[in-house]
Inverse folding.
């Protein structure tokens, strides 16, 4: 299975997300740093500079990477906003993410946080261009689907497969679309990668995320695989601004 065995399968129901519809509260965070820093250290100064740089660099395009410092005090970071999010909303999300992550993972040299509108990650270990297989969680819609799930999943794979092709080929590595199911039902889906990944690695990441969906979300009307390098989502209702 795609997730690292060292990370437990984490399932969160969409009921928990009622208060996050405006991106105010994080969806989840992981403190993964194996080393710590101290307040007032050169690493902390570099980390503060990195977070400030991402707030400036990311909103115009929705994605950015940066690094600060050198040697043992160097820190690397990236932030990604969902492909439909406006520049002002992207800036607001990235601006909130840095201080929130510092509070939730105090003095850890590696951490990641996800909101509905963005993700932010930093580490003292350089990670650009590499698929993050360790930092991942799952979200599911608590409502059951009223059709055979394996038939439903074939439709999910069809839609998300098409969106994977579109995301890999596009400059934003993002795609959102829909597929008619008949009977006035429409399936909506999203696929997105961080833009530091190559096209091949983006495809590998998304295909792994899709393959996880039956394990996390069997029989459910909606589900997400949310990771540090890519994410996929399906629902029976539209869930982004087009």
């Amino acid at each position: 299975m795609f997730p690292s065995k060292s990370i437990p399968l984490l399932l969160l129901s969409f009921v928990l997300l009622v208060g996050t519809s405006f991106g105010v509260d994080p969806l989840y965070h992981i403190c993964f740093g194996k080393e710590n820093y101290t307040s007032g250290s050169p690493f902390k100064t570099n980390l503060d500079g990195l977070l400030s740089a991402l707030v400036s660099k990311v909103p115009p395009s929705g994605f950015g990477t940066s690094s600060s410092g050198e040697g043992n005090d160097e820190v690397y970071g990236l932030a990604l906003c969902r492909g439909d999010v406006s520049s002002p909303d992207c800036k607001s999300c990235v601006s909130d993410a840095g201080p929130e992550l510092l509070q939730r993972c105090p003095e850890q040299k590696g951490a990641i946080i996800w909101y509905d509108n963005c993700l932010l990650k930093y580490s003292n270990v350089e990670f650009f261009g590499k698929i993050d297989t360790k930092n991942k969680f799952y979200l599911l819609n608590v409502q059951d689907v009223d059709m055979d799930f394996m038939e439903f999943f074939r439709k999910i794979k069809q839609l998300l497969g098409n969106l994977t092709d579109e995301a890999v080929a596009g400059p934003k590595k993002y795609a959102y679309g829909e597929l008619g199911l008949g009977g006035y039902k429409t399936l909506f889906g999203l696929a997105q990668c961080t833009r530091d990944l190559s096209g091949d690695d983006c495809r590998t990441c998304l295909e792994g995320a899709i393959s996880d969906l039956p394990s996390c979300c069997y029989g459910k009307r909606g589900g997400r695989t949310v990771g540090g390098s890519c994410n996929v989502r399906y629902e029976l209702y539209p869930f982004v601004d087009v």
About this structure: Residues 1-9, 13-23 have pLDDT under 50 and may be disordered. The chain is about 30% helix and 25% strand. The CA atoms of residues 89 and 117 lie 8 Å apart. The radius of gyration is 18 Å.
